[in-house]
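WP5 quarterly update. Target: DoxX family protein. Source organism: Chryseobacterium indoltheticum. Length: 72 aa.
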Amino acid sequence: MKLLGILFITFALALVGTKIFEGNWNLLFSGNLGMAVFMIFTGFAHFKFQKGMALMIPEFIPAKMFWAILQV
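Structure tokens (predicted):
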């Protein structure tokens, strides 16, 4: 849920920032920036929490740690 909060907060800050600096609401840029920051934090999580990511992979798949790192 923290990542979802990061997504919405980044979107809102970018939206307000574009309104202040450009004078109009730039929804496309704000959404793209929010998703970019979301994906960066998700990628970092794959490396920081490797064991947790590997635990989510089903038992019948071999080399779970390899696949958890490869997903990035």
